[in-house]
Design brief:
Strand content: under 5%
Radius of gyration: 21 Å
Shape: elongated
Distance between the termini: 55 Å
Low-confidence stretches: none
Largest sheet: none
Helix content: 55-70%
Number of strands: 0
Structural class: mainly alpha
Mean pLDDT: 91
């Protein structure tokens, strides 16, 4: 009996959440995090990496982002 009530409550919460997200989209809001590196910074990071004088860690520290962000923007060829 309690499981049925819990499931019903869970369904209500999910429905309210979906309605709230839809209402936010109508108002022009988007989900997700902020963009940390725009195209200009990505080009600069690529140039620094291609110079072969900077490590990925140094590039990440320069732009104030984690190494994973640099790897993601530079592509899979960097990890090899």
């Amino acid at each position: 009996m309690l499981a049925a009530i819990a499931e019903f409550e869970h369904d209500l919460i999910m429905e309210r959440t979906k309605d709230g997200l839809a209402a936010a989209r109508v108002r022009g809001r988007k989900g997700g995090g902020r963009v940390k590196m725009r195209a200009t910074k990505v080009r600069q990071a690529r140039a620094m990496y291609d110079e072969k004088t900077y490590t990925v860690q140094q590039i990440a520290e320069t732009f104030g982002v984690p190494r994973g962000t640099i790897y993601r923007h530079l592509g899979d060829d960097v990890r090899a």
